[in-house]
Amino acid sequence: MAMKVKAVEKLLKFDKNSAGVYRYVMSPEMYSSLNQKKVIKEAALRSGVSQGVMQA
Hints:
Layout: E1 3-12, E2 21-31, H1 36-47, H2 51-55
Antiparallel strand pairs: 1-2
């Protein structure tokens, strides 16, 4: 899986009355998805649970 992440400075407000604070927020610039079979196989291998249980 390839992922390119970019930090963007944004004004964050938690309510309408607050002035807000500028913070860096990470956002994906480019990513490619993984194959579902590969994810299930890898998760089963690392957790010790069978692939059938992972699919259910």
